[in-house]
Design a protein that fits this description.
Layout (H helix, E strand, L loop, with lengths): L3 E4 L10 H4 L1 E6 L2 E8 L4 E6 L21 E8 L2 E3 L3 H5 L19 E11 L4 E10 L5 E13 L3 E12 L3 E4 L5 E6 L11 E4 L6 H4 L6 E8 L2 E8 L8 E4 L4 E5 L6 E4 L4 E11 L4 H5 L5
Antiparallel strand pairs: 1-2, 2-3, 3-4, 4-5, 5-6, 5-12, 7-8, 8-9, 9-10, 10-19, 11-18, 12-17, 13-14, 14-15, 15-19, 16-17
Length: 294
């Protein structure tokens, strides 16, 4: 059975340089298989590696630098944009991804990590973050308790994300948009543009067949260093309808707010669960279904 550890532990980060304080490494049997990063505008997991050490996520891509690793974000929160970021706008010479059609109308918010706690090491590693989702003026809209649990077997490393959201204002509307909510940016060398293959739980294969569909999971596989590897993302059967946004360049998004907005009101709590697995080899639909969330 593999052993999982976290280094440095959260309480030790105060003694490190600023750039290192924003990074926690997840170790499996002494080797890094993931890192939790605190970026200026969000927190995310990258890299996320297979048991044999192949990284299957990407970040800091030149096309959409706001897309990185495994993360949560949303493009419409009470009129604030918490999906893209300023450096993405800076590299494009046209109004882009705008919900208003006017770049000047962007209200760019961010997600900050207020606190991180190490809950468990050993048979699995578990970290809990207390995050605040801020509007464009730096005022808090949401508090999120995000628990990240890392476990694995001989085939795959598994990341389970459990997030509880509570509003810090009277109401927060999650607007209808393609840009949210649970997202994975796949390593460039295994995406569909580079001869990778994407498939879902219903047996549909290819971007055109999986984009816009409802499914319990989507898997992307390709070759790194001559070896077949992949990453699959999962949603639970929790009563919500998750639509997938799939691209050839390696973006996979599961979104319950794609077509209809929803409002979280004071006194309410929303709970979400997601899973990602980084796997060695090609996995059949039956193999992939074995990792599905209950």
């Amino acid at each position: 059975m593999p052993t999982f550890a976290v280094t440095p532990q959260p309480r030790e980060r105060a003694h490190l340089p600023a750039w290192q304080r924003r990074k926690l490494r997840i170790l499996r049997d002494g080797r890094t298989i993931a890192a939790c990063l605190e970026h200026e505008v969000r927190t995310y997991v990258h890299p996320f590696c297979t048991p044999r050490g192949f990284p299957v996520t990407a970040h800091n891509q030149t096309d959409f630098p706001h897309q990185g690793g495994v993360w949560l974000a949303h493009g419409k929160l009470n009129g604030n944009e918490l999906w893209i970021e300023e450096r993405t706008l800076a590299i494009e010479r046209r109004p882009r991804l705008s919900q208003t059609g006017d770049r000047a109308q962007y209200r760019l918010g961010r997600v900050t990590v207020a606190d991180t706690e190490l809950l468990e090491q050993g048979e699995r590693a578990v970290i809990e973050q207390r995050n605040q989702w801020l509007d464009a003026d730096g005022q808090p809209l949401l508090e999120e308790r995000r628990r990240l649990a890392f476990v694995g077997d001989s085939v795959a490393n598994v990341l389970d994300i459990t997030s509880a959201f509570q509003p810090l204002v009277d109401a927060v509307e999650f607007g209808a948009t393609n840009h949210g909510f649970f997202a994975v940016r796949v390593e460039d060398l295994i995406d569909v543009e580079d001869a990778g293959q994407v498939a879902n739980a219903e047996g549909r294969v290819g971007v055109d067949e999986t984009n816009g569909r409802v499914s319990r999971w989507v898997d992307c596989t390709g070759r790194l260093g001559g070896e077949r590897v992949g990453i699959a993302a999962y949603v639970p059967d929790d009563g919500r309808t998750y639509y997938w946004h799939i691209t050839a360049y390696g973006l996979m998004i599961a979104n319950p707010f794609r077509h209809e907005p929803a409002t979280l009101r004071a006194g309410e709590t929303w709970l979400f669960r997601f899973r990602a697995i980084a796997h060695d080899g090609w996995l059949s639909a039956t193999d992939l279904a074995g990792y599905a969330l209950e």
